[in-house]
């Protein structure tokens, strides 16, 4: 007797899709069987004609964030409720210290809030802003506390969260010693500041100038430098939100040489473009790096399909229309970031799998498995295998939905994907064996998610593993 049985679905495995039944007991997967099993279950879900996959892992979410003086619309409850509605069962967020606070203190405060609110499991990437001799020891401590991946912003100087090259080099050195991974928001701040000053001086303040002042070279230069530096220092490297076709080429080349370099892109860079910045509500679409061209999006899709890009995250950062209006007179005053973590899997499924840009197994890899491998959660998460956590989603390819802010679970009044019709939606989301969404009915609870202590695998440091 087991707790739950998912019967006759198409189970998506790393290299194949099989017609099978999935057995779940005490929060774990206890069987994947193609035979007519006689094992009974307390509850059975009929999944004929549907796809059974590992729950999504979104390793780039800014829930309950405050950025450029504005508090985002979501919190850890509404954010994880929305994420799980769209098939995500694990998130990794950020602990970004305000000026004068240590990363360790920020981690403690973030956990105090998040632990009470999260519906699904979560972890944190600490953000490193500066490294005084006193707090350099915190890096080892943070890694030992289960947060071995870090984000360094090489931008946002005036916002007070930028890490300079000195911090970057120290971080590479410290993380190599203790088994950590440096991840960067890679853009060239000096070039950007120069271009922004010039645009403002010339009175060019509309939203499109956000993209014009951050042309592809500003990202390409820094991504290239990070790969070069990491390779020189024998360190692995993770590039948050890659947006440019030149970047795909760089990761292809480095990985073909066997270097452990990893890049993510985000949903918006695959389906939106800089043309959105020219709309009357163009300021809403300001995110960093900026939206690019159709050609870049196609290169990113290709990079995902061939494996040069490892995964797709949301970079959830939810600001309403009114919040965005703070920059209505000048693009540089708009709080950066886009909402929509709940649409990551449905859009990838609809635009990727349904349109044959990526296979089902690749979909599962880039929405779940690779994040688990890179960030030290595998095989607890990211795969349907006996012994793994029963974080499972069932996608019904017949379910169609037109994205609208009217359905928002965190009171968002716009989405970059507004009006887009997606084919395929998770009819069921299961977190550690418990059904939290079934046919649109929510049964999750605040605080049921747990903080995940992560440890990076040794192979991550030697060659590309995801
Ligand atoms: O515009 C963005 N991406 N906002 C969130 C902060 C970041 O840079 O990741
Ligand atoms: Zn960033």
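^ Assign residues to that structure.
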């Amino acid at each position: 007797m087991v707790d739950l049985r998912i019967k006759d679905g198409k189970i998506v495995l790393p290299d194949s899709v099989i017609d099978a039944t999935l057995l779940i007991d005490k929060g774990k997967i206890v069987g994947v069987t193609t035979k007519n099993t006689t094992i009974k279950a307390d509850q059975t879900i009929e999944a004929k004609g549907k796809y059974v996959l590992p729950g999504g892992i979104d390793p780039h979410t800014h829930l309950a964030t405050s950025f450029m003086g504005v508090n985002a619309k979501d919190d850890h409850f509404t954010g994880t409720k929305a994420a799980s509605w769209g098939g995500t069962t694990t998130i990794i967020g950020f602990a970004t210290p305000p000026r004068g606070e240590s990363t360790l203190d920020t981690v403690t405060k973030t956990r105090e809030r998040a632990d009470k609110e999260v519906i699904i499991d979560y972890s944190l990437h600490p953000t490193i802003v500066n490294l005084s001799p006193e707090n350099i020891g915190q890096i080892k401590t943070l890694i030992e506390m289960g947060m071995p991946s870090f984000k360094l912003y090489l931008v946002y100087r005036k916002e007070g969260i930028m890490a300079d090259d000195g911090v970057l080099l120290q971080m590479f050195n410290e993380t190599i010693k203790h088994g950590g991974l440096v991840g960067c928001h890679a853009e060239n701040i000096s070039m950007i500041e120069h271009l922004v000053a010039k645009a403002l001086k010339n009175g060019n303040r509309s939203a499109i100038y956000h993209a014009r002042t951050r042309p592809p070279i500003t990202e390409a230069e820094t991504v290239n430098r990070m790969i070069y530096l990491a390779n020189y220092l024998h360190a692995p490297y993770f590039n948050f939100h890659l947006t440019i076709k030149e970047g795909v080429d760089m990761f292809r080349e480095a990985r073909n040489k066997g270097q452990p370099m990893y890049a993510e892109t985000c949903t918006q860079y695959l389906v939106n473009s800089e043309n959105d910045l020219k709309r009357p509500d163009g300021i809403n679409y300001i995110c960093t790096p900026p939206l690019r061209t159709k050609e870049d999006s196609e290169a990113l899709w290709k990079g995902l399909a061939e494996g040069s890009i490892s995964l797709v995250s949301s970079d959830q950062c939810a600001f309403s229309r009114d919040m965005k209006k703070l920059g209505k007179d000048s693009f540089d005053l708009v709080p950066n970031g886009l909402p929509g973590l709940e649409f990551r899997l449905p859009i990838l499924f609809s635009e990727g799998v349904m349109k044959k840009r990526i296979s089902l197994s690749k979909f599962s890899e880039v929405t779940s498995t690779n994040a688990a491998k890179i960030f030290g959660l595998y095989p607890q998460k990211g795969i349907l295998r006996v012994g793994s956590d029963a974080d499972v989603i069932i996608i019904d390819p017949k379910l169609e939905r037109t994205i609208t802010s009217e359905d928002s679970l965190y009171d968002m009044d716009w989405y970059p994907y507004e009006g887009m019709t997606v084919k395929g939606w998770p009819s069921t989301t299961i977190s550690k064996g418990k059904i939290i969404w079934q046919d649109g009915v929510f049964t999750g609870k605040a605080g049921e998610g747990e903080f995940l202590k992560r440890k990076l695998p040794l192979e991550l440091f030697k060659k590309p593993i995801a």
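The longest strand covers residues 2-12.
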